[in-house]
């Protein structure tokens, strides 16, 4: 009896632990899968903290009211850090089950805050865990919203070198159930520095409820730099010229929101000046530290046209069009140059003397031999510094549907009928209206590297094919047409390459104005401004089905060659095939005979 009395507390303790374990297991199973919404459509939002066990496969289905969309946010995810995305993940489906279209998959390796939207009547998400015995927590929040209703000042696009933006209603409380996205993009070569002057959002250690998410790139699929909330004033810097900022709020505890500003930072280290020449502009970068010697921060610098102002950041940038801002264009010795001058603004008329250094930056871009060469001459108290820069003509070639050259063909590869008329245009992308494009040579090849065999359509400006028609000079466009063909005994693809010349339209003695001229009459090998474009592949429509996915199989049609002789190549192939059959048959017979010799009949012994 005494033994029973002593064991009773231990028995009660064991029973209590078993009951608690059973209850916990039951609660876990009850929350593992569920249908949300449905009969309770008055509930416009719901937040859940999911505590997950090992080796679980749980599914939740959300039903939305009519004329509403579903937005689901996984603002905090703690899964197995060592688990693979295949064995432990969250999947979101558009529909009533996991058999619907997959909207996305999330695992511990993702570096963004997953947000999914669905306009279907239901949305399903599934969580699968592996066998590792660790703590797993997922905070999921969903709500219904009207897709045609927007919140003022909730997101937008910012593309200036510097700017500012705030949460909706700032400094008043931000709206509930808001999801705002701001896309910031500045010019190439710059980075973005984002500074939050104030953040006043709901305080939470994991920032599960109201938060700001900052992404290092043009979208929310870019890498997450930070997820912040509460009362902080952080600063972020992008690695490229784009940045994305997201504000997400729930249904309770609205505060002031945030106020932010951004500036652009030139990514490269510039000691003095830098010049880049392109087909439509000259880009000059001047270091602010260099301008300190002149007691200037760049505000007083100007071009020949003083209305063209620079952009100021950590550097001073002039973007000078080739046909504006006082740029002077000069043509001589088959060379085109563009020149402008950067100086300090003129002094007041009442001033007679100055004791400050004067700065004059002469910017010059010269078009030369398939590129543009840039030069800067800096005169500073009789001190001259020179810098060079290289660039290339910006040209492209495309196929068009008709001789109106209005609708570009974007399909690649482009499947055509044999003998179909093709319309080709080479375009020069430049702001200089006084240039023309001349088609010097256009040739076709069955390979993308333009290797042999090749076929000339245009040579020295002259048509070499009876179906080829070269259109007259037309500004920045060189145009021609020809009928589709196919290379014999070769691949079924056709690639085009055109070498073009770029001339001054006012020079009536230029090579472009001469049109079709034999190469022997005038050699253009030393011609300075030239470039080339390539387009392809072009394939016959019948090759689409005959060649499978590759489109490169060569076809031989019986109806095209009814009297084709049985040539020596066919005879040789046939003889090789017969010889192989004879050899295989001989080996097989010998093997069979040897087997028969090895397994001879043996007389059974008498027992």
From TrEMBL:
<keyword id="KW-0677">Repeat</keyword>
<dbReference type="InterPro" id="IPR042235">
    <property type="entry name" value="ZP-C_dom"/>
</dbReference>
<keyword id="KW-1015">Disulfide bond</keyword>
<dbReference type="GO" id="GO:0042589">
    <property type="term" value="C:zymogen granule membrane"/>
</dbReference>
<dbReference type="InterPro" id="IPR055356">
    <property type="entry name" value="ZP-N"/>
</dbReference>
<dbReference type="GO" id="GO:0032023">
    <property type="term" value="P:trypsinogen activation"/>
</dbReference>
<keyword id="KW-0732">Signal</keyword>
<dbReference type="InterPro" id="IPR048290">
    <property type="entry name" value="ZP_chr"/>
</dbReference>
<dbReference type="Pfam" id="PF00100">
    <property type="entry name" value="Zona_pellucida"/>
</dbReference>
<feature type="transmembrane region" description="Helical">
    <location>
        <begin position="571"/>
        <end position="593"/>
    </location>
</feature>
<keyword id="KW-0325">Glycoprotein</keyword>
<comment type="function">
    <text>Localized to zymogen granules, where it functions in trypsinogen activation. May indirectly regulate cell motility, cell-cell and cell/extracellular matrix interactions.</text>
</comment>
<feature type="domain" description="CUB">
    <location>
        <begin position="154"/>
        <end position="265"/>
    </location>
</feature>
<dbReference type="InterPro" id="IPR055355">
    <property type="entry name" value="ZP-C"/>
</dbReference>
<feature type="signal peptide">
    <location>
        <begin position="1"/>
        <end position="24"/>
    </location>
</feature>
<feature type="domain" description="CUB">
    <location>
        <begin position="32"/>
        <end position="146"/>
    </location>
</feature>
<feature type="region of interest" description="Disordered">
    <location>
        <begin position="543"/>
        <end position="562"/>
    </location>
</feature>
<dbReference type="InterPro" id="IPR000859">
    <property type="entry name" value="CUB_dom"/>
</dbReference>
<keyword id="KW-0968">Cytoplasmic vesicle</keyword>
<feature type="domain" description="ZP">
    <location>
        <begin position="276"/>
        <end position="519"/>
    </location>
</feature>
<keyword id="KW-1133">Transmembrane helix</keyword>
<dbReference type="Pfam" id="PF23344">
    <property type="entry name" value="ZP-N"/>
</dbReference>
<keyword id="KW-0812">Transmembrane</keyword>
<protein>
    <recommendedName>
        <fullName>CUB and zona pellucida-like domain-containing protein 1</fullName>
    </recommendedName>
</protein>
<dbReference type="InterPro" id="IPR035914">
    <property type="entry name" value="Sperma_CUB_dom_sf"/>
</dbReference>
<keyword id="KW-0472">Membrane</keyword>
<dbReference type="InterPro" id="IPR001507">
    <property type="entry name" value="ZP_dom"/>
</dbReference>
<dbReference type="Pfam" id="PF00431">
    <property type="entry name" value="CUB"/>
</dbReference>
């Amino acid at each position: 009896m005494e033994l029973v009395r002593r064991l009773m507390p231990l028995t009660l303790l064991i029973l209590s632990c078993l009951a608690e374990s059973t209850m916990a297991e039951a609660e876990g199973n009850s929350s593992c899968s569920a249908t949300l919404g449905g009969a309770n459509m008055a509930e416009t939002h719901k937040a859940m903290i999911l505590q997950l066990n090992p080796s679980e496969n749980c599914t939740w289905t959300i039903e939305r009211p009519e004329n509403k969309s579903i937005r689901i946010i996984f603002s905090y995810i703690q899964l197995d850090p060592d688990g693979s995305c295949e064995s432990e993940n969250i999947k979101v489906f558009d529909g009533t089950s996991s058999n619907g279209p997959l909207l996305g998959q999330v695992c511990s390796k993702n570096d963004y805050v997953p947000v999914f939207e669905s306009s279907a009547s239901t949305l399903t998400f599934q969580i699968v865990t592996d066998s590792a015995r660790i703590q797993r927590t997922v905070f999921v929040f969903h709500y219904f919203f009207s897709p045609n209703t927007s919140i003022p000042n909730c997101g937008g696009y910012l593309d200036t070198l510097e700017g500012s933006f705030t949460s909706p209603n700032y400094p008043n409380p931000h709206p509930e159930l808001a999801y705002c996205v701001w896309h910031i993009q500045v010019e190439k070569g710059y980075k973005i520095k984002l500074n939050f002057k104030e953040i006043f959002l709901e305080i939470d250690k994991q920032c599960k409820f109201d938060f700001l998410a900052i992404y290092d790139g043009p979208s929310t699929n870019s890498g997450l730099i930070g997820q912040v909330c509460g009362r902080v004033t952080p600063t972020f810097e992008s690695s490229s010229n784009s940045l994305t900022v997201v504000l997400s709020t729930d249904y309770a505890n609205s505060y002031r929101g945030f106020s932010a500003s951004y500036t652009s930072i030139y990514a490269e280290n510039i000691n003095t000046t830098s010049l880049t020449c392109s087909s439509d502009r000259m880009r000059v970068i001047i270091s602010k530290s260099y301008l300190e010697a002149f007691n200037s921060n760049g505000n007083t610098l100007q071009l020949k046209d003083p209305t063209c102002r620079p952009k100021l950041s950590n550097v001073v940038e002039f973007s000078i069009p080739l046909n504006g801002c006082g740029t002077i264009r000069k043509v001589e010795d088959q060379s085109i140059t563009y020149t402008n001058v950067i100086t300090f603004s003129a002094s007041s008329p009442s001033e007679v003397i100055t004791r400050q250094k004067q700065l004059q930056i002469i910017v010059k871009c010269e078009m030369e031999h398939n590129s543009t060469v840039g030069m800067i001459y800096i005169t500073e108290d009789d001190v001259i510094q020179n810098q060079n820069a290289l660039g290339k003509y910006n040209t492209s070639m495309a196929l068009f549907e008709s001789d109106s050259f209005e609708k570009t063909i974007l399909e690649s590869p482009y499947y055509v009928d044999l003998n179909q008329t093709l319309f080709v245009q080479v375009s020069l992308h430049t702001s200089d209206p006084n240039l023309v494009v001349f088609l010097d040579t256009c040739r076709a090849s069955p390979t993308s590297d333009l290797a042999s065999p090749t076929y000339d359509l245009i040579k020295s400006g002259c048509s070499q094919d009876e179906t080829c028609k070269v259109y007259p000079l037309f500004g920045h466009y060189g145009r021609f047409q020809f009928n589709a063909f196919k290379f014999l005994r070769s691949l079924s693809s056709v690639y085009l390459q055109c070498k073009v010349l770029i001339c001054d339209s006012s020079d009536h003695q230029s090579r472009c104005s001469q049109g079709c001229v034999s190469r022997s009459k005038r050699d253009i090998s030393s011609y300075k401004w030239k470039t080339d474009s390539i387009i392809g592949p072009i394939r016959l429509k019948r090759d689409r089905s005959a060649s499978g996915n590759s489109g490169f199989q060569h076809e031989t049609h019986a109806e095209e060659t009814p009297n084709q002789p049985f040539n020596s190549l066919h005879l040789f192939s046939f003889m090789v095939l017969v010889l192989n059959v004879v050899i295989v048959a001989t080996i097989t017979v010998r093997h069979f005979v040897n087997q028969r010799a090895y397994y001879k009949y043996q007389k059974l012994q008498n027992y």
